[in-house]
Amino acid sequence: MPISSDLTNPRNFITKISRYEKVVNIPNSMTILDELLPISVEMAKRNLTGIFNFTNPGCVSHNEVLELYREYIDPSYTWKNFNLEEQAKVIIAPRSNNELDTTKLKTEFPELLSIKESLVKYVFEPNRKTPVAA
């Protein structure tokens, strides 16, 4: 799932799930565009070819993303969870949940941050609305 630092964009994954009444708490691989798009340019410069899972290492659940949202953006934010069976009743297309292997990408770009580190650095810190704890 691609994520950008633009939390005003209605198509942003974080903007979308923060507006849902209920979310399913399943871990997934995700891509922080602010970190990975410059890497795509570098890949082209290096003439890297082949199959790369173009995502940050690790996975993060919807609840973990929303906990960061609450911590950095809106301390009063709350949400409810539902299970996969309940979700299936309200969505049009089925969803896949997975963790992709990023070994090949991480070997070429060892500085690539984990999904949780990248979320904080590229998305939540730049958009922080809550005071920094002393």
Please tell me about this protein's structure.
This protein has helices at 13-19, 33-45, 62-72, 84-88, 103-108, 115-124; strands spanning 2-3, 22-23, 27-28, 31-32, 60-61, 80-81. It is mainly alpha-helical and 134 residues long. The protein has a two-stranded parallel ribbon with strand order 1-4. A two-stranded parallel sheet has the order 2-6. Strands 3-5 form a two-stranded antiparallel sheet. Helix 3 packs parallel to helix 6. The model has no long low-confidence stretch (mean pLDDT 91).
* Radius of gyration using CA atoms only: 16 Å
Characterize the largest beta sheet: strand count, sense, and whether it forms a barrel: 2 strands, parallel
Report strand %.
5-15%
Low-confidence stretches: none
Please report the number of helical segments: 6
As laid out across the biggest beta sheet, the strand order is 1-4
First CA to last CA: what distance? 33 Å
Please tally the β strands and state the result. 6
> What is the mean predicted local confidence, pLDDT?
91
State the helical fraction.
Answer: 25-40%
* Rough outline: globular
The structural class is mainly alpha
- Secondary-structure element order, as H and E? EHEEEHEHEHHH
Which key features would you list for this structure?
6 strands, 134 residues, two-stranded parallel sheet, two-stranded parallel ribbon, mainly alpha
Structure summarized in a few sentences:
With 134 residues, the protein is mainly alpha-helical. It contains six helices and six strands, in the order E-H-E-E-E-H-E-H-E-H-H-H. The strands form three sheets. The protein has a two-stranded parallel ribbon with strand order 1-4. It has a two-stranded parallel ribbon with strand order 2-6. The chain has a two-stranded antiparallel ribbon with strand order 3-5.
